[in-house]
Amino acid sequence: METKIGTKCVQGGYTPENGQPRQIPIIQSTTFKYDTSEDMGKLFDLEASGYFYTRLQNPTNDHVAAKICQMEGGTAAMLTSSGQAASFYSVFNIASCGDHVVSSSSIYGGTYNLFAVTMKRMGIEFTFVSPDCTDEELDAAFRPNTKAVFGETIANPALTVLDIERFAAAAHRHGVPLIIDNTFATPVNCRPFEWGADIVTHSTTKYMDGHGAGVGGCIVDSGRFDWTAHADKFPGLCTPDESYHGVTYTERFGLEGAYITKATAQLMRDFGSIQSPQNAFLLNLGLESLHVRMQRHSENGLAIAQFLSQHPQVAWVRFPGLPGDPYHALAQKYLPGGVCGVVSFGVKGGRKAAEAFMKRLRIAAIETHVADARTCCLHPASATHRQMNEQELAAAGVSGDLVRYSCGLEDKEDLMADLDQALNSLA
Ligand SMILES: *Cc1c(COP(=O)(O)O)cnc(C)c1O
């Protein structure tokens, strides 16, 4: 039965049979027992499906991945130990030494570093394009060895909104998939597959977990990108894998299963960035209320953005849900039901004033985290971007007065009163 997103959040991925546990069981077991070596051999050859070692697959993780898969409207999904692992696997599964990837420049700093420094050392080149570039500039970024396009629905921390349809069309014109990091929007507020994206990644550490309890990641495949139509670009999916007795992933698992099976069979086998079953259980508790929480986070985000935009001590506010924001039109298209809870703004008086203001906050805590049940905030110029001088900060789009404020689930009147007293103390 086709259900809506809230029902999928609560019930997706696990359907107990008569007399089975109502909640997803935590299978805290590294290994699984078989009667014969032949039984096990079939699993190793990917001829039968089943569990044998938790580094490759675990039932708890599979239930939770299946839930996120349903929420995004995909055909296959896998959990990873972190969002960083998900970003790495999503690209490395289809690109290797000598290949090239086009990425939006407006992405999470950790992803930028992974791409521009660490994966570059592995021989994969990235071209970064502005999310606002023209179609001509976008087309010009592609090379014959380009294997994917990458972007974020709502970028952390820049809060730009990606024109997913336009980036998907460009990727498909050049015969490669579009990978979208959907962490800030979550499938409650945007489902990138509905706009042409092919693969979605998540840092489940943020809203999906939502309680600051467990670091994790997820990759979901739409099953729609036709690897075989561009077989020369994707030999890893379309030609035999000698490390698995010559299995050709697209032939054996179809377009719906090839990408995730390869990522599990090769990358998880060799790199082992698994999520623990215990963390997957905690993640599922978060997912069960994600649709309810996202509504509240988004409402609080908009209310706080509106409040700040009228406050005399505030120099500027960026929130895509705010009329007049440069990304308002894209937010209306891609995030009609709500944006997220993260707002950035500048305090009048610059860097010193921003630091003084944050010290006065009583409800919002100073943390590097975002997208949590508890409101938190960060002054990037004195934390994540601390090493940069004023010119470097300007180039990174981080002004000295910028405060990143992540609205939690508290009552918005209390958040406003807290902001108001801290801002007024500057006057
Ligand atoms: C936090 C974050 C990541 C990295 O995820 P971790 O779980 O911290 O490894 C990736 N993308 C976005 C958008 C994030 O906010």
Keywords:
16 helices; alpha/beta; 427 residues; 2 domains; binds pyridoxal-5'-phosphate; 5-stranded mixed β-sheet; Aspartate Aminotransferase, domain 2; Aspartate Aminotransferase, domain 1; 7-stranded mixed β-sheet
Provide structural commentary.
- The chain is of the alpha/beta class and 427 residues long.
- It is built from 16 helices and 12 strands.
- Helix 1 runs antiparallel to helix 3 (59-72) and helix 3 (59-72) runs parallel beside helix 11 (277-288).
- The longest helix is centred in the middle third of the chain and has 23 residues, at 249-271.
- The structure holds pyridoxal-5'-phosphate.
CATH superfamily of the largest domain: Type I PLP-dependent aspartate aminotransferase-like (Major domain)
CATH class of the largest domain: Alpha Beta
Radius of gyration: 22 Å
Low-confidence stretches: none
In short:
The protein is α/β, with parallel strands linked by helices.
Task: Please specify the SSE layout and strand pairing.
Elements: H1 5-11, H2 37-44, H3 59-72, E1 76-80, H4 83-92, E2 100-104, H5 109-121, E3 125-129, H6 135-140, E4 146-152, H7 164-173, E5 178-181, H8 186-189, E6 199-203, E7 217-221, H9 235-238, H10 249-271, H11 277-288, H12 290-309, E8 314-318, H13 328-334, E9 342-347, H14 350-360, E10 365-366, E11 376-378, H15 390-395, E12 402-406, H16 412-424
Parallel strand pairs: 2-3, 2-4, 4-5, 5-6, 10-11
Antiparallel strand pairs: 1-7, 6-7, 8-9, 9-12, 11-12
Bound molecules: pyridoxal-5'-phosphate (PLP).
Residues 82-84, 87, 108, 110-111, 152, 156, 181, 183-184, 203, 205-206, 215, 217 line the site of pyridoxal-5'-phosphate (PLP).
